[in-house]
Amino acid sequence: MNLQTVEIKAFVPARELQRSLDFYRALGFEVRWSDGELAYLHHGDCSFLLQAFDAPGFAANYQMHLLVEDVGAWHAMVLASGVAERFGVDVGTPEDRPWAMRDFTLFDPSGVLWRIAQNLPRPAAD
Hints:
4-stranded mixed β-sheet
C-alpha cells in the first residue's frame, strides 16, 4: 500500500478572478492553467489554486503563508512591483516574530492576508 503524499494546495478565494490573476502575475506567479472559474498558480516550488469564489467575510478571514529564503528581497520586490498602488492593497513592514520567523503582511485584492516569511535562527536551548 502506497500512502506517499505528493502535494497539498489551498483554494484561495477571488472576488474578481481576473483582477486577482493580474495581482499575482505582478508578483511573479505564473498561471499554468485557468478556465475562468479556477486557476493554477505557481512560483518556484510553491503553488495554489485561485478560485472565483466570494462569500461574505470568507476572504477577510483567509490567510496564506509563503516561506521564502530572503524576506527582505521579497519585500523590496513587492514594493517595486507597485501592487499596493495599482490594486489598493496594504503591504506591511518586515518584522521579527516570536515564532522564529521574520515576515511581512500583504493583502490581495480580495482581502486574503498573506504572510511572507523566512526562518530565523532559533536560540540555543539551555
